[in-house]
Amino acid sequence: MERFVEDYQKRRLTDRFDILTAINILKSRGFDDDDLIAEITRAFYVDLDAYNEIVQAAA
User: Fold this and answer.
1) Neighbouring C-beta atoms of residue 40, cutoff 10 Å
2) What DSSP line would sit under the chain, residue for residue?
3) For position 1, what pLDDT does the model report?
4) DSSP-based three-state secondary structure for 6
């Protein structure tokens, strides 16, 4: 199912806890590691440095 989100509707994810929560929700919905970044940036403005640090720490 396609979802269309306008840029002005996107929430900013800068807090590490919020980013981790979004990652966990997406993983629980069946997204694999390769698809996470595409899906999370489709829905949110994400602090990519924090995102990368979280993903590397989990690996």
Assistant:
1) 20
2) ------GGGPEEE-SHHHHHHHHHHHHHTT--HHHHHHHHHHHEEE-HHHHHHHHHHH-
3) 47
4) coil
Cα–Cα distances (Å) from 10 to 2, 30, 32, 45, 56, in that order, read: 16, 22, 22, 6, 25
Q: Could you tell me the pTM of the whole model?
A: 0.78
Closest CA to 23 of 33, 9, 15: 33
pLDDT in tens, 26-52: 999 999 988 999 999 988 999 999 999
CA 42 to chain centre: 8
